[in-house]
Please model this.
Amino acid sequence: MVSSSHEAMHRIFQHDPGLFSRVSHFLGVDVPTPVKATVLPTDLTENSPVERRVDTLLRLETAEQGAFLLAVESQGKKDPDKPASWAYYAAYLWTKYRLPTALLVVCQDHATARWAQQPVCSGPPQLPTLTLTPLVAGPHNMPVITDPEEARADLVLASLAAITHAADTVVNEILKALSTALRDAPEDIADPIVEFTAQGLGNRPAKHLWRNLVAVDLSFYKSYISEEIRDEGRAEGRAEDILLVLEQRGLDVSDDVRSRITDCTDPELLRLWLMHAVTAPKAEEIFGDQ
Model:
């Protein structure tokens, strides 16, 4: 099953195709800003039973270099089968569209990034018929944006910075800068950034910080992920209130009771338990007959 972080790492380039030219600076190449961008079908299947799909495929046009294709792949871990698939993508796209084809692999950990950027040859050592050399964006080369003004200047790049640094401790500072920068952004601009960032963080610990920041700093946004974030933030706060009431009343709170309270995400159920916590003779009895 494809994870939300996998989707965010490549779909963010569909949201803002010009992002690639801004990211390329950090990858050691200089790609002109596109004057036109088209999202192309991602199905690369031929008349065979094997289905092949690239994550995101863009046709970018620049004033300086003309048109080229950009295939964007999200890679969460090392996969020995991937280089062959990537080589197939590049060769197939070149054959089908007769356009130069670039491959960008987006990673969230240093080991996967180092593995992905190694050149891979399809032929024997003395006959390197086809050599694949992807561009790789990851925590090793994406900027660490901790200044709200810098984040405000390029919100999409700041979101990608948070996504690619999701496993690093520095992500907390990036998220704080991004949430501050989003306070002044129009809702139609901020909502996709909130959602891409939430998806890109996946199940990593930083997701809790982002949800709290959105619940406090961006409380007026109404996208479905923003609403989900705020609901989870409210649930976490109410769970803490229940535990505080029980502890202040001097009741023993077992690990099972504590886990059941903190794991609950139903705000109405938590509200009921909070009411029971005020009078229940034992912590276990706040759950009633459930």
Notes: The CA atoms of residues 44 and 50 lie 10 Å apart. The chain has a mean pLDDT of 85. The first strand starts at residue 34 and ends at 39. The longest helix spans residues 224-248.
